[in-house]
Write a structure and sequence with these properties.
This protein is mainly alpha-helical and about 210 residues long. It is about 60% helix and about 5% strand. The chain has a three-stranded antiparallel β-sheet with strand order 1-2-3. The longest helix is centred in the middle third of the chain and has 31 residues.
C-alpha cells in the first residue's frame, strides 16, 4: 500500500530543484538587464573585423562552389564582389539579442552561458555565409532581383534561423525554457490581477 500522501506509482517525480518564485521586480530587472546588454553589444563594439571575416569566408565558399567571387576591402568596407558586408549582414543583432536573454538568467552557471553564446555565435556565422551565398546565387541566376533576394527572403531565412537557434539553445541549456515559463506565468498572473472583474455589491454585470 502506498504511504499516505504519496503519488501513484509510475508517476513522474517533481524536479529536485523546483523553480523559485519570481516577483514583478525580478521581471523588471531581468527585462532592463537584457535590453541594456543587447543594445550595448549591438551598438558599442566595432564589428569591422567580423564584417571582413564574413566577406572573406563568403567569397572563399562561393569560389569552392564555382560561383564568381572576389573579396576586396575599400577603405573601411569589406565586399563580396559588388556587395558590401555591413554590420547587419554578420548576424550580430541575433547574437546581441541572444546574449541579452542569456547573460541575466539567474542560477545558471557562467560556463553554460559562455558555451551557449559561443555555439550560437558560430551557428549564426555559418548561417549568414549560407544566406549570402544563396542570395547572390539567386541574383546571378536571374531568379530574384536583389531587393527581393536580400529583403523578404533574407527576413524569412532570419526568422527560420532564430527559431532553430532557440531550439538549439534550449537543448543545451534547459534553464532557458524553465525560466521563460516562470517569467510568462508571472506576467500572466499580474495581467489577470490587473484585468480582473470587480466583485461586490457595486459591481456591474456584463452586458
Amino acid at each position: 500500500m502506498d504511504e499516505p500522501g504519496a503519488g501513484p506509482k509510475g508517476s513522474i517525480k517533481p524536479s529536485s530543484n523546483p523553480p523559485a518564485a519570481i516577483s514583478a521586480l525580478d521581471i523588471a530587472l531581468y527585462a532592463v538587464s537584457a535590453l541594456a546588454i543587447a543594445i550595448f553589444l549591438y551598438y558599442i563594439p566595432d564589428y569591422y573585423f567580423l564584417e571582413e571575416l564574413t566577406a572573406r569566408a563568403s567569397a572563399w565558399a562561393m569560389g569552392l562552389l564555382g560561383m564568381p567571387s572576389e573579396f576586396k576591402v575599400v577603405g573601411r568596407g569589406a565586399f563580396v564582389n559588388e556587395v558590401q558586408i555591413v554590420r547587419d549582414c554578420t548576424g550580430v543583432q541575433v547574437i546581441a539579442a541572444f546574449s541579452g536573454i542569456i547573460i541575466p538568467l539567474p542560477k545558471v552557471a557562467w560556463w553554460k552561458k559562455a558555451i551557449s553564446i559561443a555555439s550560437v555565435s558560430l551557428a549564426v556565422f555559418a548561417a549568414n555565409i549560407l544566406r549570402i551565398i544563396l542570395e547572390l546565387w539567386l541574383l546571378y541566376n536571374g531568379i530574384l532581383p536583389w531587393d527581393l533576394a536580400h529583403g523578404p527572403l533574407g527576413l524569412l531565412l532570419g526568422i527560420a534561423s532564430v527559431a532553430f537557434l532557440v531550439l538549439l539553445a534550449d537543448r543545451m541549456m534547459p534553464e532557458i525554457g524553465e525560466f521563460l515559463d516562470l517569467l510568462m506565468g508571472k506576467i500572466e498572473e499580474l495581467r489577470a490581477r490587473g484585468g480582473g472583474a470587480p466583485t461586490g455589491p457595486g459591481a456591474k454585470g456584463a452586458g
